[in-house]
Amino acid sequence: MNALTHSFDPSIENDAAFRAALGQFGTGVTVVTCQTQTGPIGITANSFASVSLDPPLVLWAPAKASARYPFFMEAEHFAIHVIGAEQAHLGKAFAREGDAFHDCDWSYGDRDVPLLGGCLSRFECTRTAAHDGGDHSIIVARVRRVTTNKGTPLIFFGGQFGGFTEPH
Question: What DSSP letter does each residue of 8-59 carry, written as one string?
Answer without folding.
Answer: ---SGGGHHHHHHHHTTS-EE-EEEEEEETTEEEEEEE--EEEEETTTTEEE
